[in-house]
Design brief:
It holds the Pfam family PRK. This is Phosphoribulokinase/uridine kinase domain-containing protein. It comes from Nonomuraea turkmeniaca. By secondary structure, the chain is of the alpha/beta class. It has a single domain, classed as P-loop containing nucleotide triphosphate hydrolases (Rossmann fold, 3-Layer(aba) Sandwich), CATH 3.40.50. The chain is built from 6 helices and 7 strands, in the order βαβββαβαβααβα. It has a 5-stranded parallel sheet, sandwiched between helices. A two-stranded antiparallel sheet has the order 3-4.
Length: 203
Amino acid sequence: MVHSLVVGIAGGSASGKTTITTRLRTAVEQSGRTVDVLASDPYMYHDVDRGPTFVSPTTGEVTFDCNRPESVDWLAFLRDLGTRTSDVAAPDVLLVEGLMILHVAAVRERLDLRLFVELDADERALRRLLRDMKEPRGLREPEVIANYYRESARIGHALYIEPSRQYADIIVRGDAPPDRVQPLLLAMIDRLLGEHSAREPST
């Protein structure tokens, strides 16, 4: 049975993970390989009854904290990761994207290639502000977005996300020109696919 090559793409909120994942997916497809994406965001609990919370110093309200590892249903994520990579229709490459995928050991150990997307904190904060004001995320007021960044996102990044860069095989800038990053990543994937295929038992 052929198993997918699993490429993990981690990094802070608004660092450029999704953009790099999307571009890399297109590049892999254009190289003639099959590729799919598994993101951790859909596995997030999104409510105060099931996920971690904190009391906002600004409002005094109990708020869902999406910047802690316990905010994601990792058991379900790992189950689907196993299915997606070993199914008869498994793609050649599975791109796994998420804030904490290098922090969580059970996920990290499943990755054949580990990427960390870095970007300066002020740029991430600005990107997050602009993004959340445009998207229907429930955080459209600048003051609300800024408070959540200070009280949750910044802290979670320092505690869990930034330290996980030590596990990365390669660190890329979230604002790097695509024509500099994509060829390098595609070459690494091609090399690993060759090694991956050589290790697969013949049927």
